[in-house]
Automatic annotation (TrEMBL):
Keyword Cytoplasm among UniProt keywords: yes
InterPro entries the record matches: Rossmann-like_a/b/a_fold, TilS/TtcA_N, tRNA_Ile_lys_synt, tRNA_Ile_lys_synt_N, tRNA_Ile_lys_synt_subst-bd
Transmembrane segments: none
Keyword line: ATP-binding, Coiled coil, Cytoplasm, Ligase, Nucleotide-binding, tRNA processing
Sequence similarity: Belongs to the tRNA(Ile)-lysidine synthase family.
Encoding gene, per UniProt annotation: tilS
Protein name stated in the entry: tRNA(Ile)-lysidine synthase
């Protein structure tokens, strides 16, 4: 028998490994755009899921941002059905803050989550590659977004509903997914937005990374992905320390929460700032900027009798030996 092309073997193995921990008999949903990455993922899932005792389907979100978006979405669904997968297309209205790219992403994830919960799926599979990870890290670095952004995308994340979001191809290069599609006789859709230099991610992909490869040598994308992985490991260790610490230093207060000044002062700055961010996020659903976090920290480290600090949806004030954070207007 003819040998299996290495690119097909690589992606099937990545998918098989990602599916291995899912309960037998459960359902997985593949987010399918029709591009090479998600199409390669769908094809590998179509092959591997039955062998893992899993049911699989695809969901294509039609954002309606291009004149032929409906036809593209139906073509992607048709390709999935040809692979033996159930396929669904959902049309969404893209609006909201952050520009069309961010709004489309939010709408897409919302639809995927709702569809997965409707069928009690165990996981949603996404086709992000190592190249996507490298681009994400570079964009986070350029924006000064801190370590959380530089961690990039997690290979596996479980949300509050117990739904897993899995990226099986996060260690696979984009050129491998393209070669997989060609070797499988599939036809991928080329999103014109992926060549539109108005988008920062496209400029990183088409201009910045190639320059880095030329000037610094090959392997830049892999190095950026390794950096993200190492930062995630550090963050996991920090998070464990923070949750252990919070149990001892945080108390509920009227209309809010309070934190011990002495305990915050005893911790190094990195841990202190993470505690502040986590407390505010968990209690009020607010992600503080670094500047806001440092202002709250000054109530501990540079206390000169300053008044309350206004934050999005809440306010922080020092009262005796505690930092009290309450909902706005209280």
């Amino acid at each position: 028998m003819p040998s299996l092309p290495p690119v097909i073997a690589e992606i099937r193995l990545a998918v098989r490994t990602a599916l291995a921990d899912l309960p037998e008999g459960s359902t997985v949903i593949v987010g399918l755009s029709g591009g090479a990455d998600s199409l390669a993922l769908a094809a590998a899932v179509a092959f591997e899921a039955p062998r893992c005792g899993l049911r699989a389907a695809t969901l294509t979100v039609d954002h309606g941002l291009q004149d032929d978006s409906a036809a593209v979405a139906e073509a992607a669904a048709g390709a999935a059905r040809d692979l033996g997968l159930d396929a669904l297309v959902v049309r969404v209205a893209v609006d909201g803050a952050g520009g069309p790219e961010a709004a489309a992403r939010d709408a897409r994830y919302r639809v995927l989550r709702d569809a997965a919960l409707d069928v009690s799926a165990a996981a949603v599979l996404l086709g992000h590659t190592l190249d996507d990870q490298a681009e994400t890290v570079l964009l986070g670095l350029a924006r000064g977004s801190g370590a959380a952004s530089l961690q990039g995308m997690a290979p596996v994340r479980e949300d509050d509903d117990g739904l897993r979001w899995i990226r099986p191809l996060l260690a696979v290069r984009r050129e491998t997914t393209q070669a997989f599609v060609a070797a499988s006789g599939l036809t991928a859709w080329n999103d014109p937005h992926n060549a539109d230099a108005r988008y920062a991610r496209v400029r990183v992909r088409e201009r910045v990374l190639p320059v880095l490869e030329t000037e610094l040598g090959p392997g830049i994308a892999e190095a950026l992905a390794r950096t993200a992985e190492q930062l995630r490991e550090d963050a996991e260790a920090f998070d464990e320390m923070i949750h252990e610490t919070i149990e001892d230093i945080v108390e509920h207060a009227e209309a809010g929460i309070s934190v011990s000044v002495a305990a915050l002062a005893a911790n190094p700055a990195a841990l202190r700032n993470r505690i502040i961010r986590l407390v505010v996020d968990s209690e009020f659903g607010v992600a503080l900027t670094r500047a806001q976090t440092l202002e709250v920290a000054r109530l501990v480290t540079d206390w000169r009798g300053q008044g309350p600090i206004d934050l999005p949806g809440c306010a922080a004030a020092r009262r005796g030996g505690r930092i009290v954070i309450t909902a706005s207007g209280r």
